[in-house]
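Today's session is about reading a structure prediction critically. Students often jump straight to the picture, but the first step is always the sequence itself: look for stretches that repeat, for charged clusters, for runs of hydrophobic residues. Only then move on to the predicted structure, which in these notes is written as discrete structure tokens rather than atom positions. Here is the chain we will use throughout the hour.
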Amino acid sequence: MKRWHIVTSIVVIVLAMAAFLLFSVDNTVNASEIIPNSRPQYDSIPNEVFKDLPDYPSNFVILKRDIFNGQITNLNKIPDNIYKQPELYPTWETNGQKWFTDHDYSRWGVHGYGFFPGEISYDISNMAAGDEVNTHSFLHTSWGIETWQGLKLIPVYDHDYFDVSITPSETLLEPTFPKFYNNWSQKINMHIIAKEQVPQGDYSFSIKFGTPSNLNSNTWMWEVLDKYTDNQYHDEIQKCKDSLSQKEKCDSLIGLKQNKYISGDTFAPSNQFTVKINVI
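Below is the predicted structure for this chain, in token form.
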């Protein structure tokens, strides 16, 4: 029997402000948000922000409701036109929108990502060799992040009794500001196989992050250079100058913002995606 928990991982955003880093933690959950069957028209957020995302589906409210109340437990069946919509995520209304309605251009979102759901639990009776669990979560960029983050996903588990793989094992998370890029949210699969008869007890499985392969890092760096245009760069410089009274701070910030591709292993969210199995 499966116990289903909707627990969001704490979203941690690392911001660069002039020459130093600031940390912001958000763990607000608002699972009762109800929205209409077409994307809401936001007074202060232009439609251009969402133009790279899949079309907003007509059954969004129904699927969101059933994910939150536990009626849908196989997240592998959730299509990308659901999990790539920011309105699915619990902190969009309370935290995400402000990055567009009241953005501080003197700051730069460098690192930030998390999982939704953050925790999934199972009760399994008599787990024998070859028994397996396939579970999914959505790995997403935090609100207000302006970089492309290369990540290697490494499973953490008890090697005595299990083999575990993560798909994809390496991935590139795209920005959520100044617009949502298509790959800001991605479906992650954790595949757990029992190597032998598993004794009764509680077992935990999680994910840590490492540096992607040199091949992927180099490929992604050049992909990002192709996406990030001179016009975008000059637009950021002007907005920074308009926001800051001291030119020296703006020059320092722009110097930091020149590097748009980063390796996400230099940062880790406070709360990882966790799968808990209780063998009974």
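Discussion point for the tutorial: The radius of gyration is 20 Å.
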